[in-house]
Amino acid sequence: MNDAKARPSSSKGTGGAGRPKNKHGGAAGGARKDQAGPREADRTPLPPGHDLRALCADLLSLVRKGELLDGLLEAGPLSQRFNALEIKDRALVRAIIGTALRRHGQIAEAIAACLDRPLPQKAGALQSILAIGAAQVLFMDVADHAAIDIAVELAGRSRDTAKWKGLTNAILRRLQRERDAILARQDEARLNTPGWLFEAWAKAYGTDTARAIAAMHLVEPSLDISVKSDPEGWQEKLGGKLLPTGSIRLVAAGGVDQLPGYAEGAWWVQDAAAALPPLLLGDVAGKTVADLCAAPGGKTALLAARGAHVTAVDLSARRLKRLSANLDRLGLSADVVTADVATYAGGPFDAVLLDAPCSATGTIRRHPDLVLLKEPSDIEILAATQARLLHHAVDLVRPGGLLVYCTCSLQPEEGAAQIDALIASGAPVERVPVRPEEIGGLAGAITPAGDLRTLPSMLPDADPHLAGLDGFFVARLRRR
Ligand SMILES: C[S@@+](CC[C@H](N)C(=O)[O-])C[C@H]1O[C@@H](n2cnc3c(N)ncnc32)[C@H](O)[C@@H]1O
Predict the structure, then answer these.
(1) Is residue 18 one of the residues assigned to a domain?
(2) Is the ipTM of this complex over 0.85?
(3) What is the pLDDT of residues 388-434, one digit of tens each?
(4) In CATH, what number is assigned to the domain containing residue 285?
(5) What is the mean pLDDT of the chain?
(6) With bands split at pLDDT 50, 70 and 90, how would you rate the model's confidence at 43?
(7) N or C, fewer C-beta in 10 Å, the chain?
(8) Which of 165, 186, 207 marks a domain boundary?
């Protein structure tokens, strides 16, 4: 198959080589079958390197069917396989699956260019094996021959994919041979970003910024830490960089619970941008603050560490358990309430923080699976929920008190449009513009209306692994 295009042996179906099915496309039964493992043609145990790549392919198949990667790694049969691996192998699994997701569009395009017609839809497992192999061959510093040989063997082991063993070998060898030319012709920003997202970001922030955001999604982001106190001291002990916003930034290297200060509850993991909304409530010491949509509690912890009497409200009892466990480890406390914020009847509070459920498109650096899982219709549905929660949140603030609204989304419908609509509806609130000195001097993140809009392309650094911010929208309002 040197220069000729390869021909899959089955011509039925129209599924592309790498474009994943959307989250509504996968049946639960299919997911269970994959979680139990592929249909084995050969039942001999896999050698170690094969095992972890097989796990990567199984994880990718389930993400393509709509499962969140974090959920798969936290619970269920694949998490058991993952946790049975040694730490260094777990890191390799994260790196391979992370690369396959961050570079999914380039990988799909490169594989498709090797085929004269798309792989059949039923070749889903093969698509994952190919994508995992291609991620390594095209983008990772691992031995090509190992990546290719293992992918070929994995294809050969399952009855579903065995007939494409030769094709797998031919495609991956061609990618290896033509790697430089493939990468030189590809537009990585566009290929790895769904068109609807890229166009929305270009419209909101300009094409150059949309490209800069997309570029940041290709890089494993830093590990950001919020401390209860003594940021300078912890910066030194952790060997990190103290950001102007007060967070400590480290190059992510796994094993967070092994770092100094974790066991004693001195700090918690929180993106530097996620730490900003509570700061906009000012001095909260001794005040009553409702943290609405609070779990797993990063913002609750910041408010409690700053002396607020926090009531943490969330719909999810399971996520609130995590919030309580996090607060226990940190030696902090809050009143925890399981309730729907839309009907919650507490307060009035001196201040309210609403971190509304959203598309989370501002966190794609940390959750690259999101680009495969989100669709335009999600934004519309979430925006309607946000409007409902925001209107009710106003009623929970005492007159003269502050309300901070935030989402970790890059979509304007989930950000400024919500505040504009709230004010236009006659709600008794007015914007209190954010000042640069409240957010570590990040003047470029303040919009003309006085809201805060962080972007993944902000906070540049010579080391790309130490650059960037999650994309948050934050508005501060005062209740009349
Ligand atoms: C963005 S997360 C919150 C993150 C959290 N504030 C933090 O800093 O750790 C959104 C949360 O909203 C919760 N949620 C979604 N709809 C809700 C509703 N109607 N009422 C209360 N909580 C809701 C979800 O359970 C989820 O925990």
Answers:
(1) no
(2) yes
(3) 999 999 999 999 999 999 999 999 999 999 999 999 999 999 999 99
(4) 3.40.50.150
(5) 90
(6) low
(7) C
(8) 186
Tell me the pLDDT band of 290, cut-offs 50, 70 and 90: very high
Q: Is residue 465 part of a domain?
A: yes
CA distances from 182 to 144, 172, 214, 233 (A): 16, 13, 19, 47
Residue 411 domain boundaries? 223-479
At residue 72, what are phi and psi to the nearest 5 degrees?
Answer: -65, -35
Measured in degrees and rounded to the nearest 5, phi and psi for residue 262 equal: -65, -55
Residue among 247, 276, 303, 315 whose CB has most ligand 1 atoms within 8 A, to mutate: 315
Q: Does the Cβ of 392 fall within 6 Å of ligand 1?
A: no
Please state the domain count of the chain.
Answer: 2
In this structure, are 144 and 244 located in the same domain?
Answer: no
Whose Cα sits closest to atom 18 in ligand 1? 340
Indicate if 230 and 181 belong to the same structural domain: no
Boundary residue ending a domain (127, 157, 186) = 186
Domain co-membership, 306 together with 363: yes
114 is known as an active-site residue: no
DSSP state of 6: B
Residue 16 has pLDDT above 90, yes or no: no
Which whole-number Å values give the CA distances from 118 to 107, 162, 359, 387, in the listed order? Answer: 14, 18, 30, 42
- Give the integer Cα–Cα distance in Å for 14 and 12: 7
**CB of 341 shorter than 6 A to ligand 1:** yes
Percent of the chain with pLDDT over 90: 84
| 148 and 255 fall within a common domain | no
Specify the length of the chain in residues: 480
Active-site residue, selected from the candidate residues 56, 114, 358, 408: 408
pLDDT interval class at 147 (50, 70, 90) = very high
Residues 231 and 311 both lie in one domain? yes
The alpha carbon of 357 and the centre of ligand 1 are apart by a number of angstroms equal to: 5
Q: Categorize the per-residue pLDDT at 27 as very low, low, confident or very high, splitting at 50, 70 and 90.
A: very low
- Whether 235 and 180 share a structural domain: no
Whether residues 103 and 244 share a domain: the answer is no
Atom of ligand 1 nearest to the CA of 407: 1
Give me ligand 1 centre to Cα 461, in Å: 31
**pLDDT over threshold 70, residue 299:** yes
The response to whether 297 counts as a known ligand-binding position is yes
pTM of the model: 0.90
Q: Would the CB of 297 count as within 6 Å of ligand 1?
A: yes
Residue 21 counted as an annotated binding residue: no
**Residue 397 domain flag:** yes
Cα of 317 vs centre of ligand 1, distance in Å, is 11
Q: Is residue 205 part of a domain?
A: no
